[in-house]
Amino acid sequence: MTERPSSEAVAAAATAALQRSRSPVVSVSEEHDYEKRQNFRRLIDPGIFRPNSRDQTLSFTETIRSFNNLRPTNDLIKHQLMEPKGTLEYAIALGFRAEVKDFQPYYVFNPRHVADLRIGAAILAEAIDLEEKKQERLKRSRAEEKAAAAAAAQNAHDRKTRALRDSRERETRNASEPHQVPSDIISHTDASPLPEVVMPGVGYSLASPDPDVDQHE
Asked: What is the reported pTM?
């Protein structure tokens, strides 16, 4: 007689089978969302960030969040959506489609693309946040470089000032000290004999011994 499995084992097997049947669906969905996120990131950078200014990108972000119907002939929409590069492509990826209403062209959001709108809006907000942090780091780095350059210039100026002051102090000391004749010159002068002075008509010099002179009384 074959032993029947317990109710707990049957429940566990059923749960495992259900998870196996659902996992491919979840994996495909996640992969699909991942591809969409990557596509939105490429549309933003380099698509929008590279050719446009930061102000243009922020203006586009505010516009795309505020309107469901975009009329290309409107000055605001023309300036913030139609003229910048890459922005119209991003709007289409979000779910906006070209339509004609009352003989006027529009880009109207299609509710069937609400999932695309959700993903694209999140990626756009993420990109704006990263760009702002990047600009803050760049600004801080430039300020630090400027401060370092100013400190180096000040140090060089201080060294030059000290060297000039020291040079002037040495010149002042040298000018105030009396000039002294070197000792070797003084010794050489003391050791030289006195020159002989010859008196005319006598035949003796002042340096010669006294001559014998007869004294008459």
From this structure: 0.51
